[in-house]
Design brief:
Number of domains: 1
Radius of gyration: 16 Å
Low-confidence stretches: 1-31, 98-104
Number of strands: 12
Distance between the termini: 41 Å
Structural class: mainly beta
CATH architecture: Sandwich
CATH class: Mainly Beta
Oligomer: single chain
CATH topology: Jelly Rolls
Shape: globular
Number of helices: 2
Strand content: 35-45%
Largest sheet: 6 strands, antiparallel
Order of helices and strands: EEHEEHEEEEEEEE
C-alpha cells in the first residue's frame, strides 16, 4: 500500500475556526480566542511554490522564530518541511478544501527522513491552548497510509498538560481531516510531535494543514 496522501490548506486570516461538518476553516472576527480557533502564522503563508523540498531549513527556522517559536527536531538528519501541497508526492492524489485553496494558501507542515522522528515547538511565552488539523488523507489506487503519531504539550516545569494521538491508518478510501486541541489546567510552554512510520507508511509524522493557539 502506497501513500496517496493529500493535505488541505489554511485561510490567511487573523482568527479561524474549523467547520464542524465541512472541515474547512472559516474566518471569524472574535479576538477573545474562544474554543479552538486557528491563528495563522506567516510560515503557513510563505511562498513555497515550485520548491521540490519546500523552504530551506534556515528559512523554516527563521519563520517559526518570527512567530515566537524555537524549533528543534530529532534525528538531526530529518527535516521539518514547509512545502506546497503540489510538491508533496509530486501533487499526486491532491485533495484540497476548495474554500481554502481559493484564498491562495497552499502550504503543509511535515517531517521527512528518519524512523521514528519527532519535533518540538517551544514558545517564547506560554500559551493557553494549541489547535491543529491532521490533514485529509486521499486514497489513491493503492490506498493511503498514515503513521502512528502523538502530540504532547508540556508546561514550563516539564509536566504534561495534554496529549493527543492517532493510531496508524491504512485505508483504501479517503480519510477526512481531523482537528485536535491541546489544553489543560496549566499553560503550555512546548509541544512535541512524535511519529513512527513502521518503515512502511507514506509519511514519517503527522502532516498538518492548519494550526493555531490562544496566547
Amino acid at each position: 500500500m502506497q501513500s496517496g496522501f493529500r493535505a488541505g490548506t489554511v485561510v490567511v486570516a487573523l482568527m479561524l475556526a474549523v467547520g464542524a461538518n465541512s472541515g474547512v476553516a472559516r474566518a471569524q472576527s472574535n479576538t477573545t480566542c474562544p474554543g479552538a480557533p486557528f491563528f495563522v502564522p506567516a510560515f503557513l503563508a510563505a511562498d513555497a511554490r515550485g520548491l521540490q523540498n519546500g523552504l530551506s531549513t534556515a528559512e523554516v527556522t527563521r519563520l517559526f522564530g518570527a512567530a515566537g517559536i524555537t524549533l528543534t527536531w530529532d534525528p538531526s538528519e530529518s527535516r521539518l518541511l514547509i512545502i506546497d501541497y503540489g510538491m508533496d508526492y509530486g501533487g499526486e492524489g491532491a485533495q484540497l478544501d476548495k474554500g481554502l485553496l481559493a484564498v491562495g494558501d497552499r502550504n503543509i507542515i511535515k517531517q521527512a527522513n528518519g524512523n521514528p522522528v519527532s519535533y518540538t515547538f517551544t514558545f517564547a511565552s506560554t500559551i493557553l491552548n494549541f489547535s491543529f488539523r491532521r490533514a485529509p488523507l486521499h486514497a489513491g489506487p493503492s490506498g493511503v497510509t498514515n503513521p502512528t503519531w502523538t502530540a504532547i504539550a508540556l508546561a514550563a516545569d516539564a509536566s504534561t498538560v495534554a496529549k493527543v494521538s492517532e493510531a496508524e491508518i491504512r485505508s483504501y478510501s479517503d480519510v477526512p481531516g481531523k482537528t485536535f486541541v491541546l489544553s489543560g489546567s496549566a499553560r503550555i510552554k512546548s509541544i512535541t510531535f512524535s511519529g513512527d512510520d513502521h518503515k512502511f507508511d507514506g509519511q514519517s509524522n503527522v502532516v498538518i494543514d492548519a494550526l493555531g493557539w490562544c496566547p
